[in-house]
Amino acid sequence: MTHARDVLDTFSVSFWLPIGALTIALVMKLPSLVKMWRDPMLRAVGGLLLFACAVFVFASPSVIGWTNRVTGVPNIAAPLVYSLLTALCASWLLLIVAWRNGLADRSASTRRAARWVVFAYAGVVVALWVLFWLADVPVERRRDLDTYYATTPFMREEILLYLLAHTVACSVTARLIWNWVRTDGLDAWLRWGLRFLGVGYATNLLFDVAKLTAVIARMTGHDLDWLSTYLAPSAACLSATMVAIGFIIPHGGQYLHERWRIRLAHWQLRPLYLLLRTVNGGGAPFTPRATGELRLIRRETYIRDVLLQLSRHLDEELRERSYAAALDLGFEPGRAKALAAAVTILDAVAARERAPQTDSAASPSGPDTAYLLQEIQAVALALRHRHHIEAVRSRAAAPGRENARA
């Protein structure tokens, strides 16, 4: 048990882990908060992250001691931390009200529900301070105040009040989030974010259970203080970290996924891009500070421009024979179409090298290149498998292929 307490003690004071995670989430949400401050959902998210950071900052033992010392009032950090935690609970419920009713809902019932949350939890904050001033708590306790003063008049009621307010808010929020996770039509990143939020709020209930069990044990003459001193802070740190990750995933995951998609698309076009560079000896303009989107657009534009230059050399009959040959070889239609286009482009590049002067005669009357311009990604991927292309080319050139197609 002593070893377990030491492990929990080490983790319970690691308040900077959730503070760091919550700060990252707040920074990622900050641009949206500034631009759309009137949005009640964003205000609730901003308040949630801000109050969550403040709770862990002011709940750390070193800051508790500093607060008590600066004010000259023993244990005044307690109602301060309890008030911040109560404000955090209110932000949870306000966020749920905004989520439940949707962004476009500004009905009287929505506003009334939000007012009830604000008034109820503001009343709890006022009661916390009144009870503290009525209580006699002269001995400073930085880590075990809840159990040390569990039987002290007025302080006892204050401890139970903040835990009750926290438990109610956490239970309602966790239940509604898990209900939302099971709904259809959610974006994958949002669903994962909600799962982390659900786990975070469910873990927060462990904080309440540990605290209440330890406090009630004290009231009944038993000693389970380790639940409050060691387990509860550990659960709170884990919960806050999960909640922060839940807010980070939808935004950060979508951003990283988009960056990866752009870089992957740029890389996939490389075989076709390198092939077409042999046509005019140039390439897409390179700017070291260009964004990934701009580089992708420039590469796509270059490829389409060169394909238009090759239009005079494109052999439509070869493409049709190659498509049929690819189907005969067992490729599915989309893959067969890309392989046939790759064969046609390779043939056009070779034809252009044999007769470059015919480029000047290229005109809109040449073969239709729409299928090439629209499917450059698929054609580029096909060029990575030259053995497939050679197999299709050989079968398309086999004697009797033209008669078979006829």
From TrEMBL:
Keyword set includes Transmembrane: yes
Protein name as it appears in the record: DUF6545 domain-containing protein
Domain DUF6545: 259-379
Taxonomic superkingdom: Bacteria
Chain ranges passing through the membrane: 12-30, 42-64, 76-95, 116-135, 159-177, 189-207, 227-249
A Pfam family per the record: DUF6545
InterPro entries for this protein: DUF6545, MAB_1171c-like
Organism of this sequence: Streptomyces afghaniensis 772
Keywords carried by this UniProt record: Membrane, Transmembrane, Transmembrane helix
Keyword Transmembrane assigned: yes
